[in-house]
């Protein structure tokens, strides 16, 4: 088999990923039957519910206040440029009208194809759309047990001896991915989740699956959770287009074996739960989200922030207000985020982070500084400096620092320096 040259694969990925780099900030949406128990999306497994106990939620699921256009408008207000919705999570419940199962939203009192309404509404608001699809499936009879936490049904006395045909499940999974990518218009991201020992790579027939995905939607971006290693010099076909750290930010820019920068996206929750959780303690602040976004972009990464709609189809108010506050910051400072990436040859300053786009360097002052902000590392490289939010001049002293009392305080100070044109990383 012809092994595509490493450079070709890398260059093709760069071409596919351009909008993703410009976007930098997206909305993750975990929604499904688990919103009714309101104890997170793993509730069926963690509480070892039988299929009958969980059926209660199926029989009553009717999100009367589901208005995806409202969700899309919130995402826009937040400065988000794309969104990824769970089309099927581990519980196997399909938010779309799949012809391969009865376990779907159109068979609940909702009687709606929730995925179709999502993609149409978000596209109408100008956002790119992605679909999350769980490789695990606790409802499908041919999905095997893997430890008691992965498949509560297998632990139930009534099911322990049930025979299953895993290849039949893989056929089902492939067929559903094909219907999502052929029946819902242009999909921009396919977000698979997740592989683990024994259930990874060709166990999913991943090369065949990715070939089908790319044939149906040649422009699409695929995440890296099918089990391939995108850091390899010659990554396998299913290695993915972007790496996907979760609930955190890599310490350094992500690179492959040849030290070439790789695209990546960190996904985070707002309150430590992906699925709706009635206890709304431990929410992050808007400043936490902004700083995480700056941190990601300073290392060529994207940030996907999760919301957990309720059983009625509404995004929790607390999440809405946090995202609106982030959006206000991005209105003033988005130029230092969208389409930006790692600063070339500029180590992280002690007072914050740099992001760069073309010849402009953005200095994100994030620490409380007394006296002066040192620009030592930029000596002789700056033509002029302005506060990004209001365009006011930043006076740089002959000692290459800036008097900090010319600013209101950290987080509101994002200076853009006229950085001499240099090559920038292509991500
Ligand atoms: O088990 C899932 C979890 O429920 C959630 O969907 C996250 C989101 O990245 N992915 C898996 C845990 O890594």
UniProtKB/TrEMBL annotation:
Record keyword Cytoplasm present: no
Entry-linked InterPro entries: FUC_metazoa-typ, GH, Glyco_hydro_29, Glyco_hydro_29_N
Entry GO CC: lysosome
Pfam families associated with the record: Alpha_L_fucos
Coiled-coil residues: none
SMART domains in the cross-refs: Alpha_L_fucos (SM00812)
Site positions (May be important for catalysis): 267
GO BP, one annotated term: fucose metabolic process
EC number annotated for this UniProt entry: 3.2.1.51
GO molecular function list: alpha-L-fucosidase activity
Entry keyword set: Glycosidase, Hydrolase, Signal
Domain Glycoside hydrolase family 29 N-terminal span(s) in chain numbering: 17-335
Family: Belongs to the glycosyl hydrolase 29 family.
Function: Alpha-L-fucosidase is responsible for hydrolyzing the alpha-1,6-linked fucose joined to the reducing-end N-acetylglucosamine of the carbohydrate moieties of glycoproteins.
Name assigned to this protein: alpha-L-fucosidase
């Amino acid at each position: 088999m012809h092994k595509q040259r490493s450079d070709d694969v890398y260059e093709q990925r760069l071409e596919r990923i351009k909008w993703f780099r410009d976007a930098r900030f997206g909305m993750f949406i975990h929604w499904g039957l688990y919103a009714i128990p309101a104890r997170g999306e793993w509730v069926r497994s963690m509480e070892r519910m039988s299929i009958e106990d969980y059926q209660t939620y199926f029989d009553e699921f009717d999100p009367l206040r589901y208005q995806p256009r409202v969700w899309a408008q919130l995402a826009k207000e937040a400065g988000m440029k794309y969104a990824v919705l769970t089309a099927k999570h581990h519980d196997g419940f399909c938010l779309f009208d799949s012809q391969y199962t009865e376990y779907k939203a159109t068979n609940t009192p909702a009687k709606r194809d929730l995925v179709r309404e999502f993609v149409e509404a978000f596209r109408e608001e100008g956002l790119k759309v992605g679909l999350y699809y769980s490789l695990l499936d606790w409802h499908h009879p041919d999905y095997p047990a893997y430890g008691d936490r992965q498949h509560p049904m297998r632990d139930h006395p009534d099911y322990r001896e049930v025979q299953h045909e895993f290849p039949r499940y893989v056929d089902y999974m492939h067929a559903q991915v094909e219907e999502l990518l052929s029946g819902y218009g242009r999909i921009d991201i396919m977000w698979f989740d997740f592989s683990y020992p024994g259930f990874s790579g060709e166990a999913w027939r991943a090369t065949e699956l990715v070939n089908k995905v790319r044939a149906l939607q040649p422009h699409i971006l695929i995440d890296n959770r099918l089990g391939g290693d995108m850091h390899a010099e010659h990554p396998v076909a299913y290695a993915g287009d972007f790496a996907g750290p979760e609930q955190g930010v890599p310490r350094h820019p992500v690179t492959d074996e040849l030290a070439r920068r790789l695209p990546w996206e960190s996904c985070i929750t707002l309150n430590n739960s992906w699925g709706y959780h009635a206890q709304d303690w431990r929410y992050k602040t808007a400043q936490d989200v902004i700083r995480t976004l700056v941190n990601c972009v300073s290392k060529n990464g994207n940030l996907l922030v999760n919301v957990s709609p309720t059983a009625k189809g509404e995004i929790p108010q607390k999440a809405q207000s946090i995202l609106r506050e982030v959006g206000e910051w991005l209105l003033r400072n988005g130029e230092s985020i969208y389409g930006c990436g790692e600063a070339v040859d500029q180590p992280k300053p002690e007072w914050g982070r740099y992001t760069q786009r073309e010849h402009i360097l953005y200095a994100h002052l994030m620490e409380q500084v007394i006296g002066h902000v040192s620009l030592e590392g930029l000596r002789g490289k700056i033509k002029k400096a302005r506060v990004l939010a209001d365009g006011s001049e930043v006076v740089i002293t002959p000692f290459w620092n800036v008097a900090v009392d010319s600013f209101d305080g950290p987080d509101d100070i994002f200076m853009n320096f006229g950085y001499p044109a240099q090559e920038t990383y292509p991500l």
